[in-house]
Amino acid sequence: MPVxxxxxxxxxxxxxxxxxxxxxxxxxxxxxxxxAAAMPVDxxxxxxxxxxxxxxxxxxxxxxxxHFAHEETGGGFDELARQLPHAAAxxxxxxxxxxxILDMVARLLGxxxxxxxSGLVAGTAQVVERLRRHEAAENxxxxxxxxxxxxxxx
Length: 154
Ligand SMILES: [Fe+2]
Description:
- The chain contains five helices and no strands.
- The chain is mainly alpha-helical.
- It starts with 16 loop residues before the first helix and ends with a helix.
- Bound molecules: fe (ii) ion.
- Residues 18, 22, 67, 71, 135, 138 line the site of fe (ii) ion.
């Protein structure tokens, strides 16, 4: 008599909303950086550039608010913590970093009309780098959860 496979409890997969949201964030981050890198050389272009930079930062901020809420209260991190109990401290640190990143974006938006273009490019570079590192750490955890589900290393 064939043995029935145990009921699947698999939940980690690469169509997880967090993975989808990370793809969207990457697009917005690339657009933000492309905008910052197009820093104007003359004053005539500067005000248009500041407006475009502010728009990109606004889009990113709106995206982050939704994304971080999903991770923190929408079940994203709870599910990861259930699957990877050893990663609880890492998830707590990542959750704390959400507020730091949102604050960095808000500060940059607060000075976008007044700071020097080179100061804005430097500030944007800090946000982009911090967010890329942050999301990479989360992606590593997600891949760990997927690997656990697949029994990789068993
Ligand atoms: Fe994330």
